Amino acid sequence: MSEVNDLLEGFQRFRVKIFEPNRELYNRLAMKGQTPHTLLIGCIDSRVDPAILMDAAPGSMFVMRNVANLVPPYETTGVYHGTSAALEFAVCNLNVRNIIVLGHSHCGGIRALLDGYGDNAEGEGFIGPWMKIARSARDQVLERWPNASREFKQRACERAGIHASLTNLMSFPFIRARVEDGRLHLFGWYYDLENGELMQYDPEKNRFYDLYFGPIAAGGD
């Protein structure tokens, strides 16, 4: 129970340090509803919390998380479409102006993909079929860098998975229409977990580059 008590104590700190000083904002969000400007598609990894990473204000970011921050291609033949439903709600109902796919280093889902998890359907539950969404990204990495180190392949596949999700986003008609007329913008970000650095995908050059924010000031100022 000590872990749960830690969470409850954390909630109490939230009430004192965040909720009370911003009570008017929370009341306004409760009464008038949410109007986030950005949908962020992140991984469920407990080390990569988008709200903490972006220090986002309440109500500014609509967050959808799944294993390995993947977006499936548009299709209507299945029964359950949690990710697709979140996309539709954020774009068509909330009218977000940006979609960010946020990947990260040391992703367990990508590691499983590189290990061949999901290549055989037997006894692998739900994760294997889900990770097949990024199998083409893995295959491209293995074909291009067959003799690279495991760490290099891992990072390359994590970034290729972001690109695959960006490509799949454009397969949704309601997203493509808004991107083409300028109402919606897509971004691919990669978070370096151990160094606290962020990279962004450049579609014109087909590569990621560092987003440099300058040195961290002493005392956090």
Describe the structure.
- This protein has 221 residues and is α/β, with parallel strands linked by helices.
- The chain folds into two domains: 1-33, no CATH class; 35-220, Carbonic anhydrase (Beta-carbonic Anhydrase, Chain A, 3-Layer(aba) Sandwich).
- The protein is 43% helix and 17% strand.
- It contains nine helices and six strands.
- It has helices at residues 2-19, 23-32, 50-54, 82-93, 108-114, 127-131, 135-144, 150-169, 173-180, and strands at residues 38-43, 61-66, 98-104, 185-192, 197-202, 207-211.
- It has a six-stranded mixed sheet, covered by helices on one side.
- A hairpin with a 4-residue loop joins β5 and β6 (207-211).
- α7 packs across α8 (150-169).
- The longest helix is centred in the C-terminal third of the chain and has 20 residues, at 150-169.
- It starts with a helix and ends in a 10-residue tail after the last strand.
- The model has no long low-confidence stretch (mean pLDDT 92).
Please outline what is shown here.
With 221 residues, this protein is α/β, with parallel strands linked by helices. It has 9 helices and 6 strands, in the order ααβαβαβαααααβββ.
| CATH homologous superfamily caption of the largest domain | Carbonic anhydrase
CATH architecture of the largest domain: 3-Layer(aba) Sandwich
> Which segments are poorly predicted (pLDDT under 50) over 5 or more consecutive residues?
none
Output the CATH topology of the largest domain: Beta-carbonic Anhydrase, Chain A
- Helix % is 40-55%
Which geometry do the CA atoms define? globular
Tell me the number of helical segments per DSSP (H or I, 4 or more residues long).
9
Mind telling me the C-alpha Rg? 19 Å
If you average the pLDDT, what whole number results? Answer: 92
Task: Give me the strand/helix succession.
Answer: HHEHEHEHHHHHEEE
Number of domains: 2
Q: If strands are numbered along the chain, what order do they take across the biggest sheet?
A: 2-1-3-4-5-6
Top-tier CATH class of the largest domain? Alpha Beta
Number of strands: 6
Helix vs. strand class: alpha/beta
- The fraction of residues in strands falls at 15-25%
Distance between the termini: 37 Å
Largest sheet: 6 strands, mixed
